[in-house]
Amino acid sequence: MSQDFEVVKLHFGKGERPAQILGHYANRHGLITGATGTGKTVTVQVLAENFSQLGVPVFVTDVKGDVSGLSQAGKAKDKLIARAEKLDVKDYKFEGSPTVFWDIYRKYGHPVRTTLIELGPMLLGRFLELSDVQEGVLNVGFKMAQEEKLALLDLKDLQQLLTYMGDNAKDVSNKYGRVTGASIGAIQRRLLKLEQQGAEMLLGEPAISLSDFMKQDLSGRGIINIMDSRDLIQNPQMYATFMLWIMTELFESLPEVGDQQLPKLILFFDEAHLIFDDAPKALLRKIEQVARLVRSKGVGIYFCTQSPGDVPESILGQLANKVQHALRSYTPKDKKVIKAAADSFRPNPNFDTAEVITQLGIGEALVSTLEEGGAPSIVDKVKIAPPRCRMGAATDKERQTVISRSPIGNKYDADLDKDSAFEKLQERQQKIEEQKRKAEEELLKEKEAIAKEKAARKTSTRRKKDTVWEAAGKTVARRFGTKIINAVWKSLFGGRR
Questions:
Q1: pTM for the whole thing?
Q2: Which stretch, 89-98, 144-153, 310-319, 405-414, has highest mean pLDDT?
Q3: Beta-sheet strand order (sheet of 30-33)
């Protein structure tokens, strides 16, 4: 590969040779795996702070809270200094990295929101766990909103849209495709459940600008964005949807940049298996496409999970930079997983990869990254470099200090409630109801007029009958005399004429 820039190497440990990621291959994605407690979090910290030092912004999900230690200087310990020297870590010192905290639930960082429009029907369908039929109805709703310029921003917009579709199901079905009350009701019940779980905090405005994840501080270091996910991980579908949204939004919004000395952004997604669990085939194809193409936008994605088997093979084949911490072999299934993990590496003639995976200590890993030319390196048993930051969580007070100094400021703190589909559909429904009311009033007036006309005709007919009888009486009187008439009249009408 020809290039007109100096190769930058990110050094993060050492085995038989230095463990390093070449800067221009850092966007070829990566995988960090291993059993709980084997050192994955520290590896993420080491990689994140090294990317930051090179000026590359980082985004990392923090499901346990301990990644937040990136914001704080580590505690000076002789054994860490000695390890850094042994592993040839240059300019090692204890320091924190420039950090911005984020939190969808707004407890431990700046709010993060997106809109329904940006999320789209496919991810929303996954979020709501809809059936194919229900997702079809959701697609009809989004199509209708697009064509009729109804801005879908938050949950109340979608709820109002569904209500409108239900009230006008016949017209909507004729124009956009069949919708049923049963499907609409099912989606509404799912929305109610999500609302109870706090999903409305993710949906709304001001929506996050992804450019705010791609900043440097005044010294040129990449800012590390830490998404506190301790509460979010309690809702796995919401967590997975959020990660998928970031990937697709970056893919759709960033321009092509080709090969660069360093990536524009690196993402670390912990508990990455949640992205793929129970994902329909259409969504998996979308993830595969995004993972394959987003690297040309200058973005690298590093999935963190317990086992390589948590990631579909179509995605796994695109992850070039691999760090495998220890796996434990307790069952036949575990042995299959270990063998599959070992087989994914380029063999090292000096050891049995599958055997070494079970013998790795804390802070050790099997590593394979792309060499110059793009070929994967031979797997190496590596000791991971010590982090400069704290190996543990920041305190609430330290976190609040970082937030108070954040370059983001209060940009996202206050909710906005613009006129959107909710207001427009309410107004439209009110007009429809007013038209119905007027039509009903007109119909009632028409019925009353018809009734009056019938009553008038009836009265007129009765009067005509009375007139005929009276005329007949006079005629008979002239011919037969009054006595006879009076007698007839009395017998007919009960009285004297």
A1: 0.84
A2: 89-98
A3: 18-22, 9-14, 380-384, 364-368, 321-324, 30-33, 299-305, 265-269, 58-62, 224-228, 99-102
What domain range is 149 assigned to? Answer: 116-200
Residue 311 has what DSSP assignment? S
Q: How far is CA 328 from the centre of its chain?
A: 33
CA atoms within 13 A on the CB side of 172: 24
Nearest to 387 by CA among 10, 12, 8: 12
* pLDDT tens-place string over residues 183-198: 999 999 988 888 887 7
| Predicted confidence (pLDDT) per residue in 80-91, tens digit | 999 999 999 999
Give the count of domains, the chain.
3
**Does residue 319 form part of some domain?**
yes
Q: Among residues 315, 159, 322, which one has the least CA distance to residue 244? A: 315
What is the per-residue DSSP string for 260-299? -SS-SEEEEETTTHHHHTT--HHHHHHHHHHHHHGGGGTE
Residues 246 and 332 in one domain: yes
Q: Provide the residue count of the chain.
A: 497
Residue 240 lies in a domain: yes
Residue 146 lies in a domain: yes
Amino acid at site 42: V
Burial class of residue 236 (count of CB atoms within 10 Å of its CB; 0-12, 13-18, 19+): middle
* Residue 172 belongs to some domain of the structure: yes
Of 150, 165, 200, the residue at which a domain comes to its end is: 200
